[in-house]
Design brief:
This protein has 16 helices and 5 strands. With 339 residues, it is an alpha/beta fold. A 5-stranded parallel beta sheet has the order 2-3-4-1-5, with helices on both faces. The longest helix has 24 residues, at 72-95. 32% of the residues are buried.
């Protein structure tokens, strides 16, 4: 709350006089009281309230204080419209389903164990999972619940070695102006945390071979566990064991450091059941539809979005969630009927 919020929102100093009817005066009193309550609760200054209500500060202040020389009813109406719109938006926000948050599905448990292995040993772990299975959410939960674990999402612009190091430095709060010393500065930060640090690289298919080789250096020199998460391109590069001559020496050096590999292209039935349990969905038909949706592209992620929309539809109709709402939500999102 701003320091001047409380002084700005003392009760009005005066009562409007002049050409104002008793009805308009009552509406002014109610509106100023509601404005004051909202402004104090949200920590708004008069300037902020002026911007949100689209009423000039030079008009809002004297209107609120009861010293305005203009037409009170016009300003009261504009402020009231904003207050009503704010209340409606707030109510709509509160009615939106928040979802169950992170759910420890069988797949999430499997990935969590792989990340723990990489951090404890420490070694490389490669995990390839289909879209919507919960890979990224599991990684975020791991980082949020365990010390010295860092999640960095790669993208095409961070494919090169130095760009990747800059991204790592940002995540680890490492500041080093000399590019030649950046990798050692990152390593020093990791080493200070002990030999149980984990770097999780999501969307690792975007990393160049040179960047991955830099990760090998961090693993060797500073005992940092490395987890590469991504699509099947990651698995083709690093997830298969060496059985032929198609791998170069750089790949071989990474291969022998990989202690655990995971390849899972889609969600399993146990994942869907756990997710539906998290949403407290027990109706057999709703659960059947949930499994059908999870087999579509997007898997659990798609199911989550459909259930959120289905809950919104049910709330809007003042009804309990049913298969009808799930079917309608799926149709709205995909344009196809769900059988």
């Amino acid at each position: 709350m701003s320091n001047d919020t409380q002084p700005n929102w003392q009760p009005p100093r005066s009562t409007p006089g002049g050409q104002i009817s008793a009805e308009q005066l009552d509406e002014w009193r109610k509106t100023t009281a509601d404005l004051r309550e909202l402004a104090i609760a949200e920590g708004l200054t008069r300037s902020e309230a002026s911007r949100r209500a689209d009423v000039p500060l030079g008009t809002l202040s004297p209107w609120y204080d009861g010293t305005y020389n203009g037409v009170y009813a016009n300003v009261t109406e504009r402020v009231r419209k904003w207050l009503n719109a704010y209340a409606e938006a707030k109510a709509a926000q509160l009615s939106l389903p928040t979802g169950p948050g992170f759910i420890q599905t069988p797949t999430a448990k499997r990935l969590t164990e792989a990340l723990l292995y990489a951090q404890t040993m420490p070694e490389f772990t490669v995990a390839t999972m289909g879209a919507g299975v919960g890979k990224t959410m599991t990684a975020r939960n791991y980082v949020a619940t365990r010390p010295h674990a860092y999640l960095v999402t790669m993208r095409p612009s961070t494919a090169a070695r130095h760009a990747m190091l800059q991204e790592l430095a940002l995540s680890l709060d490492v500041f080093e102006r000399n590019p030649a010393r950046l990798d050692r500065a990152i390593g020093a930060k990791l080493k200070r945390n002990g030999r149980h640090t984990l770097l999780i690289l999501d969307e690792a298919q975007n990393l160049s071979d040179e960047a991955v080789n830099q990760l090998r250096y961090l693993n060797d020199e500073f005992g940092c566990g490395i987890a590469l998460l991504g699509n099947e391109a990651v698995y083709r590069r690093f997830g298969t064991m060496l059985h032929d001559d198609r791998h170069d020496d750089a790949s071989a050096q990474i291969q022998r450091r990989i202690g655990l590999r995971i390849l899972q292209r889609q969600a399993i039935a146990g994942d869907v059941d756990a997710f539906l349990d998290g949403w407290s969905i027990d109706d057999p038909e709703c659960r059947r539809l949930g499994h059908a949706i999870a087999r579509k592209p997007g898997a659990i992620g798609q199911l989550d979005k459909v259930l959120r929309l289905a809950h919104m539809i049910a709330v809007g109709a003042d009804e309990r969630l049913s298969a009808i709402h799930i079917r309608k939500a799926w149709s709205n999102r995909s344009g196809e009927e769900l059988r």
